Give the backbone structure.
Amino acid sequence: EFVIVNGEFIERSEVKIDMEDRGYQFGDGVYEVIRVYNGKMFTANEHLNRLIESGKKIKMDISYTVEEMKEMLNKLIQKNNLDLGTIYMQITRGTAPRNHVFPGDHVLPTFVANTKEAARPIENMKSGVKTILNEDIRWLLCDIKSLNLLGNLMAKQKAVEAGCFEAIQHRNGTVTEGSLSNVLIVKDGKVITHPADNLVLNGITRQKVLEICRNNGMSYEETTFTLDDLNAADEVFISGTTTEVTPVIEIEGNKVGDGTPGPITKKLQELFEKEIEKECGN
Ligand code: PMP
């Protein structure tokens, strides 16, 4: 299994990361996950642009261009013979003696990437998933895809311990997002999701779903909604790179609608499938 470390392709067992890498000690870095279908990356430009933007927001310059990163990642896909799965990549502010102060430009960032075989979440997409509600206790820069995921991990863990797939998070009664997905509701035929501000990650899948709505005459609105709106929704679904478009059929033990995936969610799944085929073939 090959991985990328700072532009080099090496065997995973050969990787040496210093114990004072700032990603390891501080979570001082950003990351992305890109889906691979048929050996091709899906929405790679969007993910890699967001990686660069996340870097800028923490004052970290990513020296690679989108094209350079795409070339490296495609080579990794080939070397590892990846057909269906994900690529994970992260960039940290490099290795320097532990100090809260940024180390300065002479310290180069550490870029690593690896691939993973991963099936599509067919069963969840078909049957839907159960969720819990959880107070969103994370920091106020959730638009940055930062390595600091403890809040997300604790939310996800709580969901799994409750026999659920995802935790729907809220701040003072306003729904923000899941632990690893965006949350969208459908009310009277309209898709509604939290605006892309500092309180949520502007998911690439979320953006794709809204683009699909735009191009297919389906109405949508990026606006905040409350727990009451969530509970009164006709349909609820989550979106994410690994989760794709997944219906939510239960929240805290209460059924969403009749407890089965709704028609608009299913329609969006169909159209999302077409987007994958368009970009990656079938
Ligand atoms: N919100 C959070 C907190 C996430 O971790 C993810 C998964 N990356 C998403 C939303 C969905 O984003 P995307 O569609 O880009 O995967």
